[in-house]
Write a structure and sequence with these properties.
single chain; 256 residues; Rossmann fold; 9 helices; 39% helix; globular
């Protein structure tokens, strides 16, 4: 496996990409979430690319406009469709033996792939899709109940309660919120659902059990959706060793 850095054009702007080469005809394009560079949090995307390439699949990563090593203005995830299309074209040009490309995105990168009805990919692996219309939404009641359930099973939390280490006011407020109804789906979640319904290829939605973004998605989506796969102990970036292996298995399944 070799790693090659290259530049490609998006509307006259130069974007930076990285190709992990491999002989397989099924490749992976990683779309970064937030304002994250193509290396990913704690180099997680670079490590994921290396593992997938070692399994025989080429992997392409890129920085969208205005992020990392790429030129231009950062238009946010809703304005990144042209960047993704240019990256997909550059990937196919750099690895002409490809016959199939799967897209992987975490957080709002997953959201934009859903909004774009698959964005030209043959398969999708969507992790912890972002569903908030703003950044200030409270955790959904289901997430609060799960948090309190974990605390009730922890003897240390009982000791904190009996020794005055827990604010009874905050506890009461949390219990009230936990008993509340699920929030109504956001406008963004409804758009994502409509976009994904227009995609004909295989899809897996990968949710990290300890991630607030995934919990909010669960509250806004059909929790019984057959597309959903859950990793209960994972955090947002699947940084835990077991969670990382689980993620790699799911991505390889999308490439199969």
């Amino acid at each position: 496996m070799s790693r090659r850095h290259l530049d490609f054009a998006c509307g006259g702007i130069e974007l930076a990409g990285t190709l992990d080469e491999a002989p397989g005809a099924s490749g992976l394009l990683i779309v970064s979430g937030g304002n994250e560079t193509r290396a990913g949090a704690f180099s997680g995307q670079a490590q994921l690319a290396a593992r997938i390439a070692a399994a025989g699949h080429p992997v392409f990563r890129f920085d969208r406009r205005g992020v990392g090593d790429s030129e231009g203005q950062n238009l946010g995830f809703r304005g990144s469709a042209a960047d993704i299309a240019a990256a997909l074209e550059a990937f196919r040009a750099a690895a002409p033996h490809l016959s199939r490309v799967a897209g992987f995105g975490n957080c709002d990168a997953a959201s934009v792939l859903m909004l774009g009805s698959g964005a030209g990919f043959d398969a999708l692996a969507l992790a912890n899709p972002w569903t908030l219309d703003n950044d200030h939404a409270a955790p959904p009641p289901a997430a609060i109940r799960a948090r309190y359930g974990a605390k009730l099973r922890d003897p240390r939390e009982w000791r904190r309660l009996f020794t005055g280490g827990v604010s009874l006011g905050k506890l009461a407020g949390g219990l009230v919120r936990a008993a509340g109804p699920a929030p109504a789906p956001t406008t963004l979640a409804q758009e994502m659902k409509a976009g994904l319904a227009r995609f004909a290829g295989p899809v897996e939605i990968l949710l990290a059990g300890r991630d607030r973004t995934a919990q909010l998605f669960d509250a806004a989506w059909d929790s019984d959706d057959a597309l959903i796969r859950r990793c209960p102990d994972a955090t947002h970036a699947f940084a835990e060793p077991d969670a990382r292996e689980w993620l790699i298995e799911r991505v390889l399944a999308a490439l199969a």
